[in-house]
Specification:
Shape of chain A: globular
Number of domains of chain B: 2
Largest sheet of chain A: none
Distance between the termini of chain A: 44 Å
Shape of chain B: globular
Chains: A mainly alpha, B alpha/beta, C mainly alpha
Structural class of chain B: alpha/beta
Order of helices and strands of chain A: HHHHHHHHHHHHH
Structural class of chain A: mainly alpha
CATH architecture of the largest domain in chain B: 3-Layer(aba) Sandwich
Helix content of chain B: 25-40%
Strand content of chain B: 15-25%
CATH superfamily of the largest domain in chain B: P-loop containing nucleotide triphosphate hydrolases
Number of strands of chain A: 0
CATH architecture of chain A: Orthogonal Bundle
Radius of gyration of chain A: 20 Å
Order of helices and strands of chain B: EEEHEEHEHHHHEHEHEEHH
CATH class of the largest domain in chain B: Alpha Beta
CATH class of chain A: Mainly Alpha
Number of domains of chain A: 1
Oligomer: heterotrimer
Largest interface: A-C, 44 and 47 residues
Helix content of chain A: over 70%
CATH topology of chain A: ABC transporter involved in vitamin B12 uptake, BtuC
Strand content of chain A: under 5%
Number of helices of chain B: 10
Radius of gyration of chain B: 19 Å
């Protein structure tokens, strides 16, 4: 049951989720905007990339990139329309966008309607895993670089206090739309990767629950932590896949776990902190120094 | 010479309520200009109008002779006007250092593309270093260098107010708006703050507009004072003139602030 | 002309059921400022309770309706205690409530799939399928029933909100939770009341919906449309929720008549975005200004 073929398959799915979650982490964890529509951006990337390789025999990497770019362009339009909405209303608008995208795909016969697109070229698992890992490494490095720059810091400022950000000359709208566009780019590429792994895509794969799942991973990992998102994506993709035998109860447990996380550890696994060598060293030192300092780390 | 800031017949109505009615004044370069009045007189509303948080109902605001109408709040900061907030609005969960570092962002001009593709290029590295140097000098100036790694929300009240000033100075403004900078400070801190505001004004060649309830601070610090009452102009003049003014004493000093006056 | 009138009545009938669901979203939003996405799960359970009350317990229709209402009300209250109450104690931001609600919605839906099963179930036929005839207008008995029961339920709700002491407290709390807590309003009690009221209406709505169509675990997705209706009207506004629901019911009915039935859901979601863009707080929502 746990053959390499099976495990590499799960790793590929993890990588695809991780890529989307990385982008979403920028939007939600660092800029403070919640989205319930990122499955829509994945769908746009998936359908674009699949059409490019199937109809125009475009090379995979180029098709993936194009899928990401198209998704990003759509996000710019959506962002222009909805980013001025306050609080809940933006996240409701993204929900509307995600569902509308799925329903449009349901009705476009060129894309096979609700039965979807079969016969998308696929690749051998090991080769594909290498591609997925390669893209994810690039994506993580780029994201870390972005976050640790004045642009990333400005996004965090917006998350913390919007009015004060304006007062120190941060163009809040522009940073929000940039953040949304980058997250849509990541989601679009991930969608393309998904299409060329599964070999078929259907609108139903991109419904609201998929968007919810992505946002839940980001929160589970801890808002404002890239390492948290990475760990979250790995845990929350691996576990459900391994538990697939308990198919029907899997999502019951999942739903209950989400509530449990929210009421017990809402700051997520990492609570906005990053896990790196420096942090581990500090943690070890504190352990040695005695237990009395521990409480300060939690508050 | 044109005034740094001039308000011309500025009016703001919320629904039927006039928060600020027909207010005009001019601030000259290098002045420390006080804005006082009882609670609810419309002082903070005027700050919000200058920084475009609210839009004007009537009138005009000019900065170095150029109208600020139609600008977004972030563009006001770009022009060279920065502010602090009455109910402190720091980036609460970030450290004091990060608070100032973020605000220094205008000293760099690298693009998002640069952060990814030219991170180890000279241009990017130099600019980032400049931001960190500026942050260090500002924190030291405000006496916050020792607490730089503390989370902003955990700082004592007085230090939070100073951190807000440091953050506002990071943009190298020409006009600094201070909204009750001494609120929550003890007398000793207040005196120190007065010194600091003067020092900042001289060192950075600033003009300062300040709202404050501490009469000692206002009278000792300001070159000129403008008094608001129920959103309307009540009086304007030097500290000495204001202290003599009967209307002011009646409306404000006499009733509410015996202790401070 | 008569077919036009008939469609109007169909639209009103489905719209009124949406209204029953939508006021549940709005009640919660008006007090707690978040979108309770678990409400769809409560509606779904209401539909199942009604089904089993009729088929297993062989209760008469009205008794089954009451059982569904109280059952769903109870579930809503328990849900609040488990999934939201701990967040409230901690003053967590609104989006945490939404995530918790999403978790609850996933839980409820899949719990039913795992226990009862994913199949579609139909209500036993209790009413004559022969329509009423008024002139040459044919009115489905269930359609009329849906409208009448919805109208009565909403009437009761409006009475409670407008005329009773607890209603006054609810209105006060929706203006300012802090302020009314100072005035001696017990916010915990108010939240209990709005969840039981919203839950009961959800139970009634679920049963009516199940009778008209079918019952299955994913009903919650359909009921998301009632959420859209609540947004149309302006979240937090009860009259807004009712008006928005009736409008959505009419729009959907006429879209189907015009031959766009496959686009029915799409139209709803597209309208959602359009409304938000044109009127960011819905038709009757309260606008808020960020204060410095």
């Amino acid at each position: 049951m746990f053959s390499w073929y099976y495990i590499s398959g799960i790793l590929i799915l993890t990588g695809i989720n991780l890529l989307t979650v990385l982008g979403l982490s920028l939007l939600t964890g660092f800029t403070g905007l919640f989205s319930f529509g990122h499955a829509g951006f994945m769908a746009i990337g998936a359908y674009t990339a699949a059409t490019m390789t199937m109809q125009f025999h475009m090379p995979l990497l180029l098709a993936l990139l194009l899928g990401g770019v198209v998704s990003m362009l759509v996000s710019l339009i959506i962002g222009r329309l909805t980013l001025n909405l306050k609080g809940d209303y933006f996240c409701i608008a993204t929900l509307g966008f995600g569902e509308a995208t799925r329903l449009i795909l349901d009705n476009v016969q060129y894309f096979g309607g609700s039965r979807g697109l079969p016969g998308i070229p696929t690749y051998e698992n090991n080769e594909y895993l290498a591609i997925v890992v390669f893209i994810n490494v690039l994506a993580i490095v780029a994201m870390v670089f972005l976050i640790r720059s004045r642009h990333g810091r400005n996004m965090v400022a917006i998350r913390e206090e919007e009015l004060a950000s304006q007062a120190i000359g941060i163009n809040v709208f522009r940073y929000k739309i940039t953040s949304l566009a980058i997250s849509a780019l990541y989601a679009g590429v991930a969608g393309g990767l998904m299409a060329h792994y599964l070999g078929y895509i259907q609108p139903i794969m991109f419904q609201l629950i998929k968007s919810t799942e992505l946002t839940i991973i980001v929160i589970f990992g801890g808002l404002g932590s890239i390492t948290g998102s990475v760990i979250g994506a790995i845990v929350l993709t691996f576990l459900p896949e391994v538990l697939r035998t308990f198919f029907q109860w899997r999502l019951v447990v999942y739903g209950a776990a989400v509530i449990l996380i929210m009421i017990t550890r809402p700051q997520g696994l990492m609570g906005g902190k990053e896990l790196n060598l420096k942090a581990i060293w500090r943690w070890v030192k504190r352990r040695r120094g005695g237990a009395e300092n521990d409480s300060s780390a939690i508050s | 010479m044109t005034a740094v800031l001039s308000l011309k017949n500025v009016t703001k109505k919320f629904g039927g309520l006039t928060a600020v009615g027909d207010v005009s004044f001019e601030i000259e370069k290098g002045e420390i200009f006080g804005l006082i009045g009882p609670n609810g007189a419309g002082k903070t509303t005027i700050f919000n109008l200058i920084t475009a948080v609210y839009s004007l109902t009537e009138g005009e605001i000019l900065f170095h002779g150029n109208s600020l109408i139609g600008k977004q709040p972030y563009q006001i900061a770009d022009c060279g006007i920065t502010r602090t907030f009455q109910n402190i609005r720091l980036f609460k969960k970030l450290s004091a250092y990060e608070n100032v570092l973020i605000a220094c962002h205008k000293l760099a001009n690298y693009k998002i593309i640069d952060t990814v593709f030219f991170r180890y290029g000279k241009n990017y590295q130099n600019q980032e270093r400049k931001l960190h140097e500026k942050t260090e000098s500002l924190l030291k100036l405000m006496g916050l260098w020792e607490v730089r790694d503390m989370t902003a929300a955990n700082l004592p009240y007085g230090m939070q107010r100073k951190l807000e000033i440091a953050r506002a100075l990071a943009l190298e403004p020409q006009l600094l708006l201070l909204d009750e900078p001494a609120a929550g400070m003890n007398p000793e801190e207040t005196i120190h703050l007065m010194e600091l505001i003067r020092q900042i004004r001289d060192e950075f060649d600033l003009t300062v507009l300040i709202i404050e309830h501490h009469m000692d601070l206002i009278m000792g610090l300001c070159d000129r004072i403008f008094v608001l009452n129920f959103g309307k102009a009540l009086a304007q003049g030097t500290p000495a003139e204001i202290q003599e003014d009967k209307r002011v004493v009646e409306a404000y000093l006499g009733k509410e602030d015996d202790a401070h006056a | 002309m008569s077919s036009f009138l008939q469609q109007v009545i169909n639209g009103l009938s489905i719209g009124s059921v949406y209204a029953l669901m939508a006021v549940g979203y709005s009640l919660v939003y008006s007090i707690m400022n978040f979108s309770n996405f678990a409400h769809g799960g409560v509606i779904m359970l209401g539909a199942y309770i009604g089904l089993y009350a009729l088929s297993l317990l062989s209760l008469p229709f009205v008794a089954a309706l009451v059982v569904a209402a109280f059952g769903a009300g109870l579930i809503a209250v328990v849900l609040e205690k488990i999934a939201y109450s701990p967040l409230r104690r901690r003053n967590a931001p609104g989006l945490y409530f939404i995530i918790s609600a999403m978790g609850a919605s996933i839980f409820l839906e899949n719990f039913v799939v795992a226990t009862i099963g994913p199949t579609f179930r139909t209500y036993p036929q209790i009413f004559d399928s022969k329509p009423f005839m008024i002139g040459d207008i044919a009115l489905g008995r269930i359609d009329v029933l849906m409208f009448v029961i919805s109208a009565i339920s909403l009437g009761i709700l409006m009475f409670i909100i407008e005329k009773t002491k607890v209603g006054l407290a609810i209105r006060a709390t929706s203006y300012s939770a802090k302020g009314s807590a100072f005035m001696g309003v017990n916010v915990d009690w108010i939240i209990f009341v709005i969840f039981i009221l919203g839950g009961m209406l959800a139970g009634v709505a679920g049963m009516l919906f199940g009778m008209r169509y079918t019952v299955y675990p994913q009903i919650g997705i359909i009921t998301n449309k009632s959420f859209i209706a609540a947004v149309f009207g302006g979240l937090g506004s009860l009259p807004g929720a009712v008006v928005g629901s009736i409008l959505l019911g009419l729009i959907e009915t006429f879209a189907s008549v015009a031959g766009y039935s496959t686009y029915r859901d799409l139209i709803a979601f597209a309208l959602l975005i359009l409304i938000l863009v044109v009127r960011p707080t819905g038709l009757m929502g309260k606008a808020t200004e960020d204060k410095a």
